[in-house]
Amino acid sequence: MCWKTILQQLFKLKKHSFITDEPASAGFVTCSVMTIKLYAARKKWDLQEVFVYITYSKKHSDDLEMDLDTPARFDHLHKKLKFLGNLDKKQVQRLKEIAAKCPVHKTLQSKIIIETEIVSD
Question: pLDDT for 39-87, tens place per residue?
């Protein structure tokens, strides 16, 4: 049995498909791309393609230069953005700001409570 095969998931969205073994990151990437593309289209900017790269790790508060009474470890997501198109520096900076406004990004940065229940037919 290969764990990589078991953990991989195929996502199909209209004309696009991708394989992931990090579904949380996949949702984050998808939301970021959609939010950026919708904004750029509304502004009629020449954004031809968006690439979003997410890496996940655990980091210590000291490594993140956080001044805490009690040092702790945190989940850390690093998001890199790449834009293709005829965009000026102000537009690129604005798209970076817009990427932080996607609903998944906002949820990940908030305090969250998840309740899970089983339902039957």
Answer: 999 999 999 999 998 888 899 989 989 888 999 998 888 999 999 999 9
Per residue in 48-78, is it b (16+ CB within 10 Å) or e — as a string?
A: eebebebeeeeeeeeeeeeeeeeeeeeeeee
Contact 33, 103 (CB under 8 A): no
Question: For the whole model, what pTM was predicted?
Answer: 0.75
Assign domain 18-108 to its CATH architecture: 2-Layer Sandwich (3.30)
- Strand-pair category, 46-60 with 16-20: unpaired
Q: Which residues contact 39 (CB under 8 A, 6 or more apart)?
A: 95, 98
Burial class (CB in 10 A: 0-12, 13-18, 19+), 94: middle
How far is 17 from 5, CA to CA, in rounded Å? 17
pLDDT at 16 over 90: no
